Amino acid sequence: MPVIVVVGGQWGDEGKGRIVDLLAEKAHVVARYSAGNNAGHTIINELGEFKLHLVPAGIFYPEKVCVIGNGVVIDPPVLLKEIEDLESRGVAVRGRLFISDRAHVLMPWHRLIDELDEKLRGHGAIGTTGRGVGPAFVDKVGRAGVRIADLVDREALLQSLSFLVPYKNVVLEKLYDVPPLRLEDVRAEYADYGERLEPFVTDTSALVQESLRNGETVLLEGAQGSLLDLDMGTYEYVTSSVPSSLAAGAAIGIGIGPTQIDHVVGVYKCYNTRVGNGPMPTELLDETGTLLREGGPRPEYGSTTGRPRRCGWFDAVAARYSARMNGLTRAALTRLDVLDPLPVIKVCTAYRVDGRTLKTLPASGAALARAEPVYEELPGWRRDTAGVRRFDHLPPEAREYVRYIEGVLATPICLVSVGPERDQAIPMKGII
Ligand code: GDP
Ligand code: IMO
Ligand code: MG
How many CB atoms are closer than 10 A to CB 89? Predict the structure, then answer.
């Protein structure tokens, strides 16, 4: 009856959705615990390709229960559309998707403020996904949020909006110089969403605890990546999720205790990517960077915004750091196939900053921006791995590379993926 957290080890988009899709087969409950629809998780199965933003990746197994926990911020029209799209493609959602009554609601001013604030920041823009998720978490912390429990209660919603709409209009009009929102419009629109979402709403912490009492396996699906975490990531170019996007946030974001977590699986790409702004020491602006972005199936473009992802060599300094921050018990590696054509593969083992050699991630963003990567070179394999299903069938250089990363993370690797399709995976040391 383990509780397993799946967490991104880099700057997001490591392939968490694809790994959760594989692990979900043996779980009973699959739950999202943080972030909002800034996340985009790609799952490819017999029904086609799906990009999930709020619904957990377990939804494709008809007998699994899926939960959107209290730590998630929910944009109602986005969730309703996602449910509708899944249903129209033959995926049953009703009766098996449950939403926490304590989750926060993303309101129309959050989307506006996200966009306006990025403009106001000018050169200091974060490069957010523009979905309003950051401002929604700011309001959660600022005790000016609307929760799902209020959304589904007409009286509570009216009371809450009667305070919040004029309060937020001051910010919109005086700070950003845009027209105010009308209380009645917002109330009518969100009361309708509340009515439509009400059948999904429950105390999901109680649901998960009940499942654990019954000896079931619970999979907690992380969003974003460790280097985007508000506390431990590359501040201020991070996301604003509270609770944290690290594994430790999973307990709070789903309503269990930290002692109830048995395994933490860190997902890493075999190289690095980042969308949005902020330092990335191993970024490649040359033809190798282009090859990493465009090579192999499913090129590196954001699942949520479609922006090209910045690509570079595997950063072992940052990876070792994130493995530690999450207390990993296992790691999963993705996109090994993308490295197939390369004659030489580089790994960043240290940073040179102002004449000093650093082996860990500096707190200072300015120092990280100046960091020059120190590389170790490993031989490439220049053979197709997409069809390989057993570790000992990989080319020796590919095995060496996987073992090298395992050493960096000081964590056993449980799975290597060699393509985006469900079966393109090499199982290694088990978890469940
Ligand atoms: P997530 O946000 O961590 O779930 O990751 P995304 O879905 O945003 O991005 C991962 C991308 O890599 C998706 O397009 C996946 O289909 C794709 N992908 C996952 N694993 C592999 C793999 O092993 N090889 C290749 N070529 N693509 C993969
Ligand atoms: P998944 O779950 C990659 C990045 C944005 C930006 C920063 C802040 O698919 O891995 P935000 O909209 O959160 O205020 O943007 O965080 N970001 C992600 N990058 N994958 C994600 O999610 C991300 N969620 C946020 O690009 O740099
Ligand atoms: Mg993604």
Answer: 10
- Which residues lie across from 202 on neighbouring strands? 100
DSSP lists the bridge partners of residue 425 as 417
Matching residue, tokens 């990993």: 328
The 10s digit of each residue's pLDDT in 215-264 is 999 999 999 999 999 999 999 999 999 999 999 999 999 999 999 999 99
Known active-site residue 41: yes
Best residue among 221, 239, 241, 304 to mutate for probing ligand 2's pocket (most ligand atoms within 8 Å of CB) is 239
Instruction: Tell if the pTM clears 0.85, that is, is over it.
Output: yes
Strands (E), 102-175: 104-105, 146-147
Which domains does the chain possess? 3-100+201-264 (3.40.440.10), 104-197 (1.10.300.10), 269-427 (3.90.170.10)
13 has catalytic annotation: yes
* pLDDT averaged over every residue in the chain: 97
Asked whether 263 and 5 are in contact (CB, 8 A), the reply is: yes
Rounded to an integer, what distance in angstroms lies between the CA atom of residue 413 and that of residue 77? 38
Strands of 85-153 (E only): list them: 97-100, 104-105, 146-147
Distance in Å, CA 125 to ligand 3 centroid: 20
Q: Is residue 133 in contact with ligand 2, taking CB distance under 6 Å?
A: yes
pLDDT at 82 > cutoff 80: yes
Residues with CB under 5 A from ligand 3 (ion): 13, 40, 303
> Exactly one of 13, 101, 315, 340 is catalytic; which is it?
13
**CA 77 – CA 151 distance, rounded (Å):** 13
Give the HSE-up count for residue 305: Cα atoms under 13 Å, Cβ half-sphere: 15
Task: Please give the sequence-ordered ranges of beta strands (E in DSSP) within 132-211, or none if there are none.
Answer: 146-147, 201-202
Cβ-Cβ contacts under 8 Å for 155 (sequence gap 6 or more) = none
Indicate which residue of 28, 41, 53, 110 is catalytic.
41
What DSSP character marks residue 197? H
